[in-house]
Design brief:
One of its GO terms (biological process) is transmembrane transport. It is a multi-pass membrane protein. Belongs to the binding-protein-dependent transport system permease family. It is globular, with a radius of gyration of 29 Å. Helix 2 packs across helix 14 (about 290-320) and helix 4 packs across helix 13 (about 280-285). The relative contact order is 0.12. The protein folds into 2 domains: about 1-55; about 80-320, Orthogonal Bundle (MetI-like fold). The protein has helices at about 1-15, 15-65, 80-85, 90-125, 130-140, 150-160, 165-170, 185-210, 215-225, 230-240, 240-255, 260-265, 280-285, 290-320. By secondary structure, it is an all-alpha fold.
Length: about 325
């Protein structure tokens, strides 16, 4: 009590000194709070640097060198690999742009279906009674939890030309069997079907969460005005879930750009090289031809393309918020 009275007396006699002390105490408390908060972020920053930032920087470094996997010397070549990729008639030019064209084809074929069917499934599941809604959510989401190898085994048995389930079913209908994995355009159809079955559950769950956020009052008001189901969908549902649709559109596009497992395990890039996507070419260049420098240059360019798509996502989402 005595110290407290002395402190109060000093504060009355020297108000500016008291305010300075209080500011210093607040500053120390603020610094301690920031330091404590930063400790919670450090594990993430360490993992980010170790598994993402350092590999990216090292990949860029490799792309600027003649980095043969079996050689001990890696001379600096600057942007020679990048120039070769954009020089018509070179091996790297055909390897990169043929793979990019195959990848773009898959993006064009798969992304609209991933969005449309994902939204349709979410509407159907949401319309079910509550008691069985969770069961169907789980049923449609289960394939997404499977590994790529399991998915490939299932669809290899489905698409096998001689003894596959689909061709056996077509034979019972007196229809000719289709070369699902060895002919055009059947190989693309097979890849898109396998991808839809494997990944559409994720988009469905995202859309279901978005649909559950739409206020029921809007639908009730529309019913009073005499709006039918289609009018409610166009005027209420689509505008309400538009930000989520943009998110699903961009993430599905990025995922389709990164396609590798489906063509590698199902078609092996065939028929010919028609389904040999860019990631297959990059890995072949790196680990079959042992040319990590040029493979890293192609990977960097592919990453820049994906970053451009991410910028589009940000711009569209940011514009929507404003």
């Amino acid at each position: 009590m005595r110290r407290r009275r002395e402190s109060e007396r000093v504060s009355r006699l020297f108000p500016h000194q008291s305010q300075t002390k209080e500011a210093a105490v607040l500053l120390r408390a603020s610094w301690r709070s920031r330091f404590t908060s930063s400790l919670f972020v450090l594990p993430y920053l360490a993992c980010f640097a170790l598994f993402l930032l350092i590999p990216i920087l090292y990949g860029i470094y490799i792309s600027l060198h003649e980095f043969e996997l079996l050689s001990k010397e890696h001379p600096f070549v600057g942007f020679q690999h990048y120039a070769s990729i954009f020089t018509p008639g070179t091996y790297l030019n055909s390897l990169f742009f043929n793979g990019l064209w195959a990848t773009l084809q898959f993006v064009i074929y798969s992304v609209p279906l991933l969005i449309a069917l994902g939204l349709a499934l979410s509407l159907l599941v949401n319309a079910l009674p509550r008691r069985i809604r969770g069961l169907f959510r789980t049923f449609y989401f289960l394939p997404y939890a499977l590994s790529a190898s399991v998915m490939a085994v299932i669809w290899l048995m489905m698409f096998d030309t001689n003894a596959g389930f689909i061709n056996s079913f077509l034979a019972k209908l007196s229809l000719d069997p289709a070369p699902w994995l060895t002919g055009r355009p059947w190989a693309w159809i097979a890849l898109v079907l396998a991808t839809l079955w494997w990944t559409i559950g994720f988009n469905m769950v995202i859309f279901i969460n978005a649909l559950n956020e739409v206020p029921e009052d809007h639908y009730e008001a529309a019913s009073i005005d005499g709006a039918n189901a289609w009018r409610k969908f166009v005027a209420i549902t689509l505008p309400s879930i538009r930000p989520v649709m943009l998110f699903v559109l961009i993430t599905s596009t990025i995922a389709s750009f990164n396609i590798y497992a489906q063509p590698f395990l199902l078609t092996r890039g065939g028929p010919g090289d028609s389904t040999k996507v860019l990631l297959i070419n990059i890995l072949d260049q790196a680990f079959i031809r042992k040319e990590l420098g040029s493979a890293s240059a192609m990977a960097v360019l592919m990453a820049l393309l994906i970053m451009a798509v991410s910028v589009v996502q940000y711009r569209l989402t940011y514009g929507r918020k404003e």
